[in-house]
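Backbone geometry tokens:
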Amino acid sequence: MDVIKAARELGKAIQNDSRYKDYVAAKEANDNDEGLQQLIGDFNLKRENLQLEANKPDGSRDDDKVQRLNKELQSCYERVMGNPNMANFAVMKNAMDNLLQDVQNIISLSCEGEDPDTCEYKASHCTSDCSTCGGCH
């Protein structure tokens, strides 16, 4: 089996993994949540307004406005991340990222000459954010 064919088989295996399926379902739930999409649109607009004001030259920048916009942006971010669909998506994306990191670690270690069947591929997936974690191991 050539390397490209093996990569395609790996892609199929990843798409059959429950973490991939959960990630896709969570992404779809986000995309279909009109309230969440509105919050994300509001967040992006507030971020753009903040950047425009913050990037003005010192003499024309309104620091009070920058501070107010920054607070509004933070509040909007908290509402986005507090949405149940977004919270679930964050957990599922983290699981998917961990899977891909494990796969990448096996490939990298194999390229360094280690045995693909026995190399230790599990890296620490701690994000230091306990809300994204299934518990310490």
Summary: The chain has a mean pLDDT of 90.
